[in-house]
Amino acid sequence: MGEFADKLAAKPLVFQRACLGSLLPNSIKSGNLEKYYQALTNFDFLMVKIHHPEFGVQALIDDFNLVDDSESLNHPEYNPEKAKALNLIQRVLWMSADIWEQDKTQLAGQLLGRLLHFNIPTIQAMSEIAKDWKATPWLRPLTPCLSPPRRGWLRTLLGHSRSVNAVAVTADNKRVISGSLDKTLKVWDLTIGKEIFALKGHSSSVNAVAVTADGKRAISGSLDKTLKVWDLTTGEELLTLKGHSSSVNAVAVTADGKRAISGSHDNIKVWDLTTGKEEFTLQGQSILVNAVAVTADGKRVISGSLDNTVKVWDLTTGKEKRGLLAFVGKSLINSSELFTLKGHSERVNAVAVTADGKQAISASSDKTLKVWDLTTGDEIFTLEGHSRSVNAVAVTKDGLAISASSDKTLKGWDLKTGSQLFTVEAHSNWVNAVAFTADGKRAISASSDKTLNVWDFTKVWDLTTEDELFTLKAHSGSVKAVGVTADGKRAISSSHDNIKVWDLTTGKEEFTLGKEEFTLEGHGNSKSLYVTYKVAVTPDRKRAIAGSSDNTLKVWDLTTVKEEFTLKVRDLTTGKEEFTLTGRSYSVNAVSVTADGRSRISGSSDNTLKVWDLNTGNVIASFTGESPIACCAIAPDGVTIVAGARSGRVYFLRLQGMEELT
After folding, report:
1. How far apart are CA 138 and CA 108, in angstroms?
2. CA dist list (Å): 190 to 58, 151, 196, 251, 647
3. For a tag on the chain, would you pick the N or C end, based on fewer CB atoms within 10 A?
């Protein structure tokens, strides 16, 4: 495994534990910052600690927090380049923690796939060691094929089976509660990225969730017209709040934890969380209420609606306002609407309030956010930048707003100036919800792609010059097939848009076959875009053959980059099943077999590539990408693998460590 690992493995387990557990703290106590740098950039140290039964991924992540950046700046051994390297490595650990919890052999692959982007000597030295790891077979990225640790992304929380619609965070920053179209809520340990338990009881989609300030209870709103109150310590359902005649779309809780405010198709209701009784109804919003927020003092509620307005309500009094009457005894209060904020041209999907209660921020399907003065009811400014509906917004105490959109991004905004600070590509589908931790350091986003992402926005500026340096993402649509030349030097990938030829040495695109704006030249007519399903390369490396949904095969000359001729295809299937390789819970989208017939590679919708031993049916090695694998191919050398993902990304990999099996 490596000199350090071999020596440590030869020692008793108690010695290993003492060594791994005390090496870094002792280095710091003795003032030896350089030893701290060396350990955490040592691939063997990372591998041993992540495999050790008494430590693991989270213990390793915590090691990077032993020295605070602000404290180390004045240390005589402080090294900016090495400090940046540690920051990058820690963020990769966060990003891939869920993968390593399932398969620790992917440590080297995930590190290389994410860190080969960076021209930093310390990172490059560690990467060279990682490339030679041979303790077990694994798939080594030949190019920087995974998203690098930039823009604050820490990790992904996986577990929901359908769209995640809502998210909330406890005040101690330790737990996340998510609500989903799968009818469940999940409670997550944010420290380790693990699901603690699932809250089941709603009979339909969970649309909204809020948490009391003490972190002991969660309140959820559902399409089943009810709200439920949950005990976050035991996972038990405490109360069911009934009274709405339609879907509950939004919920908020007062700071004292005594009241919940819910928004529905019918109206807004205020609930007593001690008794579970409805206190009163706020009426005045003409149609569907999508969002509610409450000021920190518990005196006002802000709601957003399908009627394109934002309304501000007074919760403290039932006195008459603006000529409206208050009905006492029947608990219907029409008099508590303070004013209406008009300006959005489409429905309002979300609202948030600043900590001082002076401003409200509304998010709308009109692609904008608006910042409002809650004292005067005036619009301060409009935040523009999203290309699709803005579905959610959250605000920190120091005036940073984060918006989530159907354009799959999160955007950061300065509420003092109205300027856009940054954009992050957040998910592979709509982003439906976003919440900040109480300290404002992290945000959690929820998406229709069934995942939650955890973001560290204190690091969002670190790598602004490192964006998209080497990402292989030239296709504009799903990659359907990949072929490799016999010498392993070229790959040919096909997509909705065209066919591309890649240099496997550099990972660069050489040229495109059939390059036109809207059509793959030669397949179909000039008005139609046909999907290319399969591509292969002749052994002499001179031709590529591509099959399309227009029922033709096209033969391309790779020397002249021209189409030679077309073959008509009637039936490409045999209908015969050889055997089944088990081990996947998602659909298998692509299969390829090595030339010697010993191994098979499969690509799946669970984002993984797996190498199977055809003699035993066992998985030899695996690699986890960032979106479903659509196709894969193996070079004649039997170890070079190319895979295409539905996102348009292409992975170039090499199967290493096979000699350990022979």
Report:
1. 8
2. 11, 19, 10, 22, 27
3. C
Closest CA to 333 of 314, 305, 351: 314
Residues 290/305, Cβ–Cβ less than 8 Å: yes
Q: Has this prediction a pTM greater than 0.85?
A: no
CA gap 300, 312 in Å, rounded: 7
3-state SS, 342-359, equals ECCCCCEEEEEECCCCCE
How far is the C-alpha of 592 from the C-alpha of 603, rounded, in Å?
9
DSSP class of residue 607 equals S
Residues 471, 451 contacting (CB under 8 angstroms) = no
- Residue pair 629/603 in contact (Cβ under 8 Å)? The answer is yes
Which candidate, 470, 431, 475, 471, places its Cα nearest to that of 453?
A: 431
User: What is d(CA 428, CA 471) in angstroms, rounded to the nearest whole number?
Assistant: 16
Residue 496, Ramachandran bin (φ over 0: left; ψ between -120 and 50: alpha; else beta): alpha
Instruction: Report the distance separating Cα 189 and Cα 211, nearest Å.
Output: 15
CA angle in degrees (0–180, nearest 5) for 291-206-163: 100
The answer to whether 301 and 374 have CB atoms below 8 angstroms apart is no
C-alpha pair distances (Å), 629 with each of 15, 219, 530, 572, 591: 43, 38, 20, 21, 10
428-451 pLDDT, tens digit per residue, is: 899 999 998 888 888 899 999 888
Largest CA distance in the chain: 88
Rounded to whole angstroms, what are the CA distances from 532 to 198, 310, 500, 513?
Answer: 42, 48, 12, 12
How open is the CA angle 657-661-662, to the nearest 5 degrees? 110
Runs of H (alpha helix) within 426-555: none
Q: Which two tokens stand for residue 499?
A: 């066919």
The dihedral formed by the CA atoms of 500, 502, 508 and 510, expressed in degrees to the nearest 10? -70
Q: How many Cβ atoms sit within 10 Å of the Cβ of residue 571?
A: 6
The per-residue pLDDT for range 298-356, each reduced to its tens digit, is 999 999 988 888 988 888 853 323 333 333 333 334 446 778 888 999 999 999 999 99
- Residue 644 tokens read as 């295409």
Cβ atoms within 10 Å of 286's Cβ, excluding its own: 11
Which tokens belong to 49? Answer: 């600690």
